[in-house]
Automatic annotation (TrEMBL):
Belongs to the UDP-glucose/GDP-mannose dehydrogenase family. SUPFAM superfamilies: 6-phosphogluconate dehydrogenase C-terminal domain-like, NAD(P)-binding Rossmann-fold domains, UDP-glucose/GDP-mannose dehydrogenase C-terminal domain. Pathway: Nucleotide-sugar biosynthesis; UDP-alpha-D-glucuronate biosynthesis; UDP-alpha-D-glucuronate from UDP-alpha-D-glucose: step 1/1. This is UDP-glucose 6-dehydrogenase. It catalyses: UDP-alpha-D-glucose + 2 NAD(+) + H2O = UDP-alpha-D-glucuronate + 2 NADH + 3 H(+). Keywords: NAD, Oxidoreductase. The keyword Cell division does not apply. InterPro entries: 6-PGluconate_DH-like_C_sf, NAD(P)-bd_dom_sf, UDP-Glc/GDP-Man, UDP-Glc/GDP-Man_DH_C, UDP-Glc/GDP-Man_DH_C_sf, UDP-Glc/GDP-Man_DH_dimer, UDP-Glc/GDP-Man_DH_N, UDPglc_DH_bac. One of its GO terms (molecular function) is oxidoreductase activity. Residues 320-424 form the UDP-glucose/GDP-mannose dehydrogenase C-terminal domain.
């Protein structure tokens, strides 16, 4: 099939590349010329395990190309995936300007039948808006041209995006047009050879399914974070509680890890957008509102622990920070807890010496050259001479460090662990003061 993917971010680039890997001809459009230059020069603009090799392989076979030309991209694919950003607007609702601008471009230039696929996470009713936008452009041109609009939300996880896309646990297709449904089934058939995982539903339900999934996952995290804070006060151990409840098959073990708050480009904005959709419809989503509040508080949990231990005047102190990305295996720092911690430490007068295996360039892009944020080239470089260590991302390389060396390097043997990486007992034996989340 000939496919156009609009937007070469975390979702668009993975989608386009994986579709090319299955033998399709794919052209990816981005209006950010610097991203297309990186891609045409043999790199990728994001960190995503396994993606660079796949991009290079498919570029070499000419099944995958990149362009900034809207006209060329509209002409190319019968299937047009819209995978542009849907950031939060000022009121928390999803900002649809990029999605609708992509739709306008399709309407402006299309000459044959197109299936337009909303891959971006978009509020219920967006497919209708995309359809109206394209129809208005066609009408302005005085052209009659058939097209279909399909919702196909993406469930990939950053850091495991290629694997998730190549082996999806489900493919949701929201459509009412039989020709489009057949095209989508044909497209995804190679990804689900062992058994059918396509779930066809109406468009609105598909749009809401994506928000429901992220809202449920965010709810589990906030629930565990609140319980962990209570466990802290009660002298109980959230890790034991996690095992105790996760073994109930109705609950399960996934997404029960407490920490210093969820971040990333999806949960925070999707929870907000769903609350906003509900508000517009006169339905107060009380649970979800609390999920968001709890998460905002949780991002300060490490700062509160630091304040309790060292006071709120941290002038002259340096804190080592392990992790900048919102989670391991990505360079994405959108809404990352690290940002709240960095900015909170600055407010109290401290300097931060940070190490992250892949996100330091992203941090430089966000914070520029600020003397209060120093970058170390290794975990041990970050702790050398620092007052204490703060951990916000559970990268594998942080899981089994040399504690004796850390103790020698730090001015105070104090670790604030926002991801519960270590055994409190082991650290106590080594005479560390260990502050984790809900651990005894
Ligand atoms: N990141 C994730 O893990 C993830 C997972 C599932 C769903 N989603 C959803 O997918 C969508 C994209 O997310 P992302 O993280 O890939 O975003 P992103 O910001 O990484 O990428 C979006 C890209 O679209 C480009 N763009 C914007 N307008 C354009 C236009 N009119 N034409 C061409 N290109 C345009 C931007 O330049 C950018 O490169 C969002 O709706 C997001 O909620 C993201």
């Amino acid at each position: 099939m000939k496919i156009t993917v609009i937007g070469t971010g975390y979702v668009g680039l993975v989608t386009g590349t994986c579709l090319a890997e299955m033998g399709n001809d794919v052209l990816c459009l981005d209006l950010d010329a610097s991203k297309i230059k990186v891609l045409n020069d043999g790199g990728i603009p994001i960190h995503e395990p396994g993606l660079l090799d796949m991009v290079l392989r498919n570029k070499a076979t000419k099944r995958l190309g990149f362009t900034t030309s809207i006209e060329e991209s509209v002409a190319f694919g019968e299937l047009q995936f819209i995978a542009v950003g849907t950031p939060p607007d000022e009121d928390g609702s999803a900002d649809l300007q990029y999605v609708l601008s992509a739709a306008r471009n399709i309407g402006k230039y299309m000459t044959g039948y197109k299936v337009v696929i909303d891959k971006s996470t978009v509020p219920v009713g967006t497919a209708d808006k995309v359809r109206e936008t394209i129809a208005a452009e066609l009408a302005a041109r005085g052209v009659q041209q058939e097209f279909a609009v399909v919702s196909n939300p993406e469930f990939l996880k950053e850091g495991a995006a290629v694997e998730d896309f190549m082996r999806p646990d489900r493919i949701v297709i929201g459509a009412d047009d039989q020709r489009a449904i057949t095209a989508m089934r044909d497209l995804y058939a190679p990804f689900i050879r062992n058994h059918d995982r396509v779930i066809v539903m109406d468009v609105r339900s598909a749009e809401l399914t994506k928000y429901a999934a992220n809202a449920m996952l965010a709810t589990r995290i906030s629930f565990m974070n609140e319980l962990a804070n209570l466990a802290d006060k009660l002298g109980a151990d959230i890790e034991q509680i996690r095992v105790g409840i996760g073994s109930d098959p109705r609950i399960g073990f996934h997404f029960l890890y407490p920490g210093c708050g969820y971040g990333g480009s999806c949960f925070p904005k999707d929870v907000q957008a769903l609350i906003s959709t509900a508000d517009e419809n006169g339905i107060g989503l009380k649970v979800l509102r609390s999920v968001e509040d709890a998460n905002d508080d949780q991002k300060h949990v490490l700062l509160n622990k630091i304040r309790s231990r060292f006071g709120s005047d941290l002038r002259g102190m340096t804190f080592a920070l392990w992790g900048l990305a919102f989670k391991p295996n990505t360079d994405d720092m959108r809404a990352a807890s690290s940002r709240v911690v960095i900015e909170g430490l600055w407010e109290m007068g401290a300097v931060v010496r940070a190490y992250d295996p892949v996100a330091m360039n992203e941090a430089r892009r966000i914070y520029g050259n600020d003397d209060r944020l120093v970058y170390a080239d290794s975990p041990s470089g970050a702790v050398a001479g620092a007052d204490a260590l703060v951990i916000v991302t559970e990268w594998k390389e942080f899981r089994a460090p040399n504690f004796d060396a850390i103790k020698l390097a730090l001015k105070h043997p104090v670790i604030f662990d926002g991801r519960n990486l270590y055994s409190p007992e082991q650290l106590r034996k080594k005479d560390f003061e260990y502050f984790a989340i809900g651990r005894r």
